[in-house]
Amino acid sequence: MWQESIVTNAPQPRVKKRTSRSTSRDDWRDGLHALDYLTYAYLQSEQDDNARQVVEAVARVTALNPDIGLPGSYALASIPARYAMERHAWLEAASLIRPDAAHTRRDCNAKS
Known about the structure:
It contains 7 helices and no strands. The chain is mainly α. The protein has one domain. The longest helix has 20 residues, at 25-44. It is globular and about 35 Å long. Residues 13-18 and 105-112 have low confidence and may be disordered.
């Protein structure tokens, strides 16, 4: 059902708006989560060029709502990793750098 996943998670106007202009944590999280699933569906259906376009779009993200939570942070890290690993591009995967954004470091050493 990869094509159904692509249709469901494709950047529709609401997703594009969420990931480009919105400040809502839920909008960021949901938009990035959809892009992660979209990348995976593209890769599983051998649409590597489409997956690469998502990877490139995510790489251009320079500012985020700082409270996007684990799903958004996970998507930012997993999209490029998934792209490299699913294509067996091991050197590319080994050279990946963790996204350097406050939400990926925040609370790492926080005490409850």
